[in-house]
Design goal:
Chain lengths: 266, 230
């Protein structure tokens, strides 16, 4: 049974210190409001998981919430680098950040394995690259039927998954559409899940291409209109590309980032 | 008509895409070039973005691979596991169109770190979709500015074993010799072999039939500028 509650209460219920947690979203529907609430509540020692850690992960890392990052592409999409991520990896500020890096296909298949209840997934991946030498999660495997050499990757099980969706009904059934990324797999890979939504409606009218997460796989729903900003929610808002560009300047310097952080925590 | 080295590079990259090809597009210069190709000689070019957008037809250049218009203009929008597993992995895609932070003489690319992995001088974004785009597409084209920083003798990290059929830079075009080493096959107008060698960290060979790239046509430049100045 889904608990429909406020964002602070939902974050307190779902995301705990030391968790392995994914805030997924492939440039669309990124759960910024939930990430900000995690910063306000001062969560620590998180293993942050995401295919495309972008600005919200830069903020979580800069705020000192993370101990470890599992990812495949860490950048500010269309703008450049993540300066807080870089500062953590290159200089250990504000705390050292362990990293485990994969490719997108490896990450996507690790989620699929976890969502499928399997110990690992198989793909043709990372061949000829230096990735396997720096990761415990990319191993060769021989196909028992054809003898083809393939790549095995372990299931990526999560303590918690946090995603943003367009809407939910009052039972907690969730509907999202547009670029739906890997959110379904993340929720199904997690012990606990939180979905923030633009609105709560009496009935979920069908939308072409929509993903529906039935209420019984969603632990918490919290209303957070605009909760994806500066990312966007198809049908509700547009991507605030200007903010992504502004973030480059805000995050470049520890002091200006500190001012941004104090403003968030006020 | 005057044009910049970057404009020449983007136009040359667009020309590398034939009409009706299916192209897996990275963001940045590859995306600009692919959208230019679709508006000039290749109206039937199918653009696939790793965010799950198949057959995207954006009217303006996307800033990110997840811009809303890529989805709303696409023939189909699929999940990220599906785009990699069902569409890229089986070899349905003709061309992977990538960029790089570093590239070596065999066309391997690095987008992971500059310096040692454990204590990098510069931490770059990482692999993203590139390793499997490189291995899953039938061919790879790389677009990258040519300099001693990018064209290096040894990569700090092999992110993708790209083995591109063509590398297009702001100085010219490189293609692999039978041994697999990239050689300069065309220089852009006004660029000398010495310029290209001076911007390359290995002993760069020039093809016997080294050509000169046709300059951008007024039409190509008009369309490119209408895309980038929007």
């Amino acid at each position: 049974m889904t608990v429909i509650t406020s964002l602070p209460d939902a974050v307190a219920l779902v995301v705990q210190d030391g968790d392995t947690v994914a805030f997924e979203g492939f440039t669309h529907l990124i759960p910024f409001a939930a990430g900000h609430e995690v910063i306000r509540q001062g969560r620590r020692d998180l293993t942050l998981v995401r295919m495309t850690p972008d600005v919200i992960y830069d903020q979580l890392i800069g705020a000192g919430c993370a101990r470890r990052l599992v990812f495949s592409w860490g950048g500010n999409p269309g703008v450049g680098s993540l300066h807080r991520f870089r500062d953590a990896v290159q200089h250990g500020w504000p705390a050292p950040l362990e990293i485990e890096e994969n490719s997108h296909a490896v990450m996507a298949n690790r989620y699929v394995a976890a969502a499928s209840g399997l110990p690992f997934a198989v793909l043709r991946g990372a061949v000829g690259t230096d990735l396997p030498a720096h990761s415990d999660s990319i191993r060769p495997i021989t196909c028992p039927f054809t003898g083809e050499e393939l790549t095995a990757v372990p299931a990526l099980r999560l303590d918690a998954a946090v995603v943003h969706a367009q809407r939910a009904d009052r039972e907690g059934n969730v509907q999202l559409w547009g670029i739906t990324g890997v959110q379904k797999e993340a929720v199904l890979s997690a012990t606990r899940s939180l979905v923030t939504v633009e609105e709560i409606v009496p009935v979920l009218e069908p939308v072409p291409g929509a993903v529906v997460l039935p209420s019984w796989v969603v632990d918490c729903v919290a209303l957070a209109p605009g909760g994806a900003h500066p990312s966007y929610a198809d049908g509700y808002s547009v991507r605030d590309n200007a903010f992504y560009q502004e973030w480059d300047a805000i995050s470049r310097d520890r002091a200006t980032f500190g001012e941004w952080l104090r403003e968030l925590q006020r | 008509m005057n044009y910049s080295a970057d404009e020449m590079m983007t136009v040359a990259a667009a020309r590398a895409l034939r009409d009706r090809a299916v192209c897996f597009v990275g963001i940045g210069i590859p995306s600009t070039a692919a959208n230019l190709a679709r508006r000039t000689h290749a109206p039937g070019l199918v653009l696939i973005y790793e965010s799950g957008c198949i057959g995207a037809k954006p009217t303006s250049l996307p800033l990110s691979i997840g811009d809303g218009e890529l989805a709303s203009s696409a023939d189909a929008v699929v999940s990220v596991p599906e785009i990699f597993n069902y569409w890229l992995q089986p070899g349905r895609v003709d061309v992977g169109f990538l960029s790089a932070a570093q590239l070596d003489r065999r066309g391997n690319i690095n987008t992971t770190v500059i310096g040692p992995y454990a204590s990098p001088e510069v931490r770059l974004p990482g692999a993203g979709g590139a390793p499997e785009i490189a291995s899953g597409c039938r061919s790879v084209v790389v677009v990258v500015r040519q300099s001693l920083k990018t064209f290096v003798d040894g990569l700090d990290f092999v992110t993708s074993a790209a083995a591109p059929r063509m590398v297009i830079t702001d100085l010219g075009v490189l293609e692999p010799s039978p041994s697999g080493e990239l050689v300069m096959t065309s220089l852009h107008p006004g660029v000398s072999a010495a310029d290209a060698r001076a911007a390359t960290g290995w002993d760069l060979a020039m093809a016997d039939d080294l050509g000169v790239t046709s300059p951008p046509s007024p039409h190509e430049l008009d369309v490119l500028r209408s895309l980038t100045h929007r």
